[in-house]
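REQUEST ID: PR-0412
SUBMITTED BY: lab tech R.K.
PRIORITY: routine
TASK: structure prediction, single protein chain
INPUT:
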Amino acid sequence: MNEEISLFGIFVPSVLACSVISYVVMVAVSRVLRVVGAYQYIWHRSLFNLSMFVCILCATVLFLFQAQS
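STATUS: complete
OUTPUT:
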């Protein structure tokens, strides 16, 4: 996981790329939950969104870097 990604000659950490991917997925899931009406049953929406982001980030890192080990 110590790899860096070259983006137009600028090296960015791989965690940053995973975070951006995870944020896009979280926004999509959040919109689906809002349309379905699931946020009515969630007590603290901000904490739920934070925990959902962390879970998606962990899943993204595990999915992208499982082949290296």
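NOTES: The two ends are 10 Å apart (CA to CA).
REVIEWED BY: pending
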